[in-house]
Amino acid sequence: MHSKKHIINIFVIFIYAIIGLSNAEEGEESEELQRKVEELSLVPDDKVFIHSVNDSRMVTCIGNDVKWRSANGSYVDTYNQMERIHVEDFSSPFSDNQQLRLIFKEIYEMDHGDWSCVGIYEEKSFTLFVYVPVEFVPVQQSITVNELQNVKLSCEALGRPAPEISWMFNGIRIADTDESTSESRHIQLSDGLYIKNVTRKDAGDYTCKAFQLSSKLSYFKDQTIQLDVKFKPEILNTQRTLSNGLYNSSSGITTKYTFLNASVILTCEVNGDPQPKILWYHRGKLVHKSNIEHKNNLSTLKIHIHSNKSFDDYKCVAKNDLGDAVSLFTVKPGIRPEPPTKLKLIGTGDQVIDLDIGAKQPNLTADIFAITKYRFEVMSKDDYDYEGDWKNYNITDVEARSNVTYLITQLAPNTTYLVRVASINLVGLSERTEMQEFTTLAEAPRKTQNEPDSAVQNFSGFGLVMLGVLLNLMY
Ligand SMILES: *[C@@H]1O[C@H](CO)[C@@H](O)[C@H](O)[C@H]1NC(C)=O
Ligand SMILES: *[C@@H]1O[C@H](CO)[C@@H](O)[C@H](O)[C@H]1NC(C)=O
Ligand SMILES: *[C@@H]1O[C@H](CO)[C@@H](O)[C@H](O)[C@H]1NC(C)=O
Ligand SMILES: *[C@@H]1O[C@H](CO)[C@@H](O)[C@H](O)[C@H]1NC(C)=O
Ligand SMILES: *[C@@H]1O[C@H](CO)[C@@H](O)[C@H](O)[C@H]1NC(C)=O
Ligand SMILES: *[C@@H]1O[C@H](CO)[C@@H](O)[C@H](O)[C@H]1NC(C)=O
Ligand SMILES: *[C@@H]1O[C@H](CO)[C@@H](O)[C@H](O)[C@H]1NC(C)=O
Ligand SMILES: *[C@@H]1O[C@H](CO)[C@@H](O)[C@H](O)[C@H]1NC(C)=O
Ligand SMILES: *[C@@H]1O[C@H](CO)[C@@H](O)[C@H](O)[C@H]1NC(C)=O
Ligand SMILES: *[C@@H]1O[C@H](CO)[C@@H](O)[C@H](O)[C@H]1NC(C)=O
Ligand SMILES: *[C@@H]1O[C@H](CO)[C@@H](O)[C@H](O)[C@H]1NC(C)=O
Ligand SMILES: *[C@@H]1O[C@H](CO)[C@@H](O)[C@H](O)[C@H]1NC(C)=O
């Protein structure tokens, strides 16, 4: 049958060749006729078929003496219906036209491309677009680097259409790098993200998002890599010690002042990954454990000053695999502050007590041991009688200022309170004053014989604003 058709074709062409010659003047008509015979058509005639792997598809080519050419250029010449891709001939023996069906029983990724039905004079093609959902090449889910190293986080996303990649760090998009931002430490590569000079702040979750976008489909998938950044220990507390010491940033030494028979606490707060081990040294020897307390990243050494020998240098060393950090301390004898010279009642209100303690503005240039703060301790007499001691009392530290009185606020009316005060300087707390009793006024009606100072009246409203002790400028 096949060979017979071939002969007919040649015959037809021969006939038209003769007609073409004889009807040279009537070209239009003959071309139309020729097209009728030669025209190839595909059913369905879509230009593109989008398919997923394992889909099936059939395309019929109608024409004379046609063949199917595959995406890789070879002809599909198998009529074996067992084959995944084969051709079935549905030509009618009574028709001039062949009907060749190209059958994909299961579409594979490699079938992607242009498939053509090829006739003698023309061919018609369609694009078989084999959609491949994005897949990531598996990677390590967690990566550990040392600080200041460079790291590449892999993200290889395969799929068709080729996925677009963007990166997120802890949920925030990392801006694409371009020429103008070449300073950026993040460089997006086709198969990953390169981070130069990693710092501990770079530790976190990096999410690689792969988007597949086209007019007909959109899809995305993501993959997260956890970046762990190891770094050597770092001492954190140098500034914090200022409340009870002096930090010299050029020598790196913190000086702590105390006095004989007192105790001093040295604090070493460190940061590091892996968690650093903290050791204390005195005169080159490890300090006995009993005086040391570790709590998370904080280590404290308590030194009791038995004798002048205890005034000495101490050292805290924080160590991990990546290195160590040292914090130096020197404990020197200081001058303990004197307690306030007076504790004089200026006035009372129904919620406030106003006290003069002879406070003075410190001049630390003239005297590093000047009093910088006062500590007020307040407790109701009822509570004191119940507890039998100073327990659960309110403590408030306030700045030392010249020419002020101190207003204790938020007190209950018609209540007796016990108050005692201590001074604070670089060395620490002074002895406390003797405790004194003060009674607030009854709420209403105001008792005229206990008429408070006008200042207190004016300031009593502050109790609503602040809790504890307020400064009250003397007039
Ligand atoms: C396609 O079929 C094969 C075999 O039936 C199966 O293993 C594979 O997962 C299928 N692929 C898709 C993308 O469905
Ligand atoms: C070309 O594609 C056909 C069908 O997809 C396949 O059977 C054949 O092996 C391929 N040939 C080459 C050289 O890849
Ligand atoms: C790496 O980062 C550190 C701290 O951010 C910086 O001091 C150093 O100069 C950087 N090194 C390089 C090679 O960029
Ligand atoms: C701080 O240390 C430097 C260097 O050891 C020293 O010269 C300077 O006097 C010190 N400053 C104070 C205030 O102790
Ligand atoms: C220190 O304590 C000892 C005994 O506890 C005592 O004898 C000594 O006087 C105290 N020294 C000072 C300066 O308080
Ligand atoms: C301790 O240090 C680690 C890093 O080493 C840090 O993540 C953690 O927040 C620190 N903890 C405290 C209580 O400072
Ligand atoms: C400690 O030193 C001070 C001053 O340097 C001195 O007055 C005192 O006697 C010394 N005390 C002892 C027990 O050595
Ligand atoms: C603090 O004391 C220094 C030295 O005695 C002096 O020069 C300075 O004027 C004083 N400052 C104030 C505010 O009194
Ligand atoms: C401290 O003062 C506040 C406000 O006046 C009060 O609510 C609280 O109970 C007091 N605490 C103690 C321990 O007395
Ligand atoms: C405190 O008051 C005295 C006397 O009224 C005055 O001489 C002095 O300048 C005042 N000091 C301040 C810091 O206001
Ligand atoms: C104040 O309290 C005392 C005893 O606590 C009580 O006898 C007195 O009546 C109270 N005064 C007023 C005005 O509430
Ligand atoms: C207190 O307030 C009253 C009225 O608001 C005012 O006349 C008086 O001068 C004030 N007293 C002081 C010491 O500020």
From TrEMBL:
<feature type="domain" description="Ig-like">
    <location>
        <begin position="133"/>
        <end position="218"/>
    </location>
</feature>
<dbReference type="GO" id="GO:0030424">
    <property type="term" value="C:axon"/>
</dbReference>
<dbReference type="InterPro" id="IPR007110">
    <property type="entry name" value="Ig-like_dom"/>
</dbReference>
<dbReference type="GO" id="GO:0050808">
    <property type="term" value="P:synapse organization"/>
</dbReference>
<dbReference type="InterPro" id="IPR003598">
    <property type="entry name" value="Ig_sub2"/>
</dbReference>
<feature type="signal peptide">
    <location>
        <begin position="1"/>
        <end position="24"/>
    </location>
</feature>
<dbReference type="InterPro" id="IPR013098">
    <property type="entry name" value="Ig_I-set"/>
</dbReference>
<dbReference type="InterPro" id="IPR003599">
    <property type="entry name" value="Ig_sub"/>
</dbReference>
<dbReference type="InterPro" id="IPR036179">
    <property type="entry name" value="Ig-like_dom_sf"/>
</dbReference>
<keyword id="KW-0732">Signal</keyword>
<dbReference type="InterPro" id="IPR003961">
    <property type="entry name" value="FN3_dom"/>
</dbReference>
<keyword id="KW-0393">Immunoglobulin domain</keyword>
<keyword id="KW-0677">Repeat</keyword>
<dbReference type="Pfam" id="PF13927">
    <property type="entry name" value="Ig_3"/>
</dbReference>
<dbReference type="Pfam" id="PF07679">
    <property type="entry name" value="I-set"/>
</dbReference>
<feature type="domain" description="Ig-like">
    <location>
        <begin position="233"/>
        <end position="327"/>
    </location>
</feature>
<dbReference type="InterPro" id="IPR013783">
    <property type="entry name" value="Ig-like_fold"/>
</dbReference>
<dbReference type="GO" id="GO:0043025">
    <property type="term" value="C:neuronal cell body"/>
</dbReference>
<dbReference type="GO" id="GO:0007156">
    <property type="term" value="P:homophilic cell adhesion via plasma membrane adhesion molecules"/>
</dbReference>
<dbReference type="InterPro" id="IPR050958">
    <property type="entry name" value="Cell_Adh-Cytoskel_Orgn"/>
</dbReference>
<dbReference type="GO" id="GO:0008046">
    <property type="term" value="F:axon guidance receptor activity"/>
</dbReference>
<keyword id="KW-1015">Disulfide bond</keyword>
<dbReference type="GO" id="GO:0005886">
    <property type="term" value="C:plasma membrane"/>
</dbReference>
<feature type="domain" description="Fibronectin type-III">
    <location>
        <begin position="339"/>
        <end position="443"/>
    </location>
</feature>
<dbReference type="InterPro" id="IPR036116">
    <property type="entry name" value="FN3_sf"/>
</dbReference>
<protein>
    <submittedName>
        <fullName>Uncharacterized protein</fullName>
    </submittedName>
</protein>
